[in-house]
Amino acid sequence: MRLAACALLLALAACAGRGGCGADGAVVENASALAVEQLHLAPAGTEGWGTDLLAQADLPSGGRLPIRLTGPGRQALRVVWVNGRAAEMRDIDACTTRRITILDGSLRGD
């Protein structure tokens, strides 16, 4: 019994050291026809969108960007295309989502 408890504690410590279940990250893929000029990631339910992850350059059509989902918990993502249109995805599970695809006018998580 004691051995099982120690094994469980070691497993939990390993997860905590990795930064949570989203520490492996995800990939954002731009499958839309336009470049994306802003990409914001924030914990779901918080005020504001925080830092623009694309502050240095646009994400072109066909481009990919690895991101780190902070978890566990729900995340929200907002994209703004170069034409000013925007889309949001407000219920991203940081523990299971490994790819977010930017489509023409919407976002899809896998």
Strands, helices and their partners?
Elements (H helix, E strand, L loop, with lengths): L1 H16 L8 E5 L5 E8 L20 E4 L6 E8 L4 E8 L5 E5 L2 E4 L1
Parallel strand pairs: 1-6
Antiparallel strand pairs: 1-3, 2-4, 4-5, 6-7
Using brief descriptors, characterize the structure shown:
single chain; 110 residues; mainly beta; Immunoglobulin-like; four-stranded mixed beta sheet; three-stranded antiparallel beta sheet; 1 helix; 7 strands; 15% helix; globular; disordered N terminus
Strand line-up in the sheet with most strands: 3-1-6-7
Order of helices and strands: HEEEEEEE
CATH fold label = Immunoglobulin-like
How many domains comprise the coordinates? 1
Q: Specify the number of helices.
A: 1
Gyration radius over CA: 17 Å
Q: Label the CATH architecture.
A: Sandwich
Apparent shape: globular
What is the first-to-last residue Cα distance? 38 Å
The largest sheet is: 4 strands, mixed
Low-confidence stretches: 1-19
For the record, what CATH class applies?
Answer: Mainly Beta
Mean pLDDT: 82
Query: Tally of extended strands?
Result: 7
CATH superfamily, called what?
A: Domain of unknown function DUF5300
As a percent range, the share of helical residues equals 10-25%
Instruction: Report strand %.
Output: 35-45%
Report on this model:
With 110 residues, this protein is mostly beta strands. It has one domain (22-109): Immunoglobulin-like (Sandwich), CATH 2.60.40. Helices cover 15% and strands 38% of the residues. It has 1 helix and 7 strands; from the N terminus they run H-E-E-E-E-E-E-E. The strands form 2 sheets. A 4-stranded mixed beta sheet has the order 3-1-6-7, with no helix packed on it. A 3-stranded antiparallel beta sheet has the order 2-4-5, with no helix packed on it. Strand 6 (99-103) and strand 7 form a beta hairpin. The model is unreliable at 1-19 (pLDDT under 50).
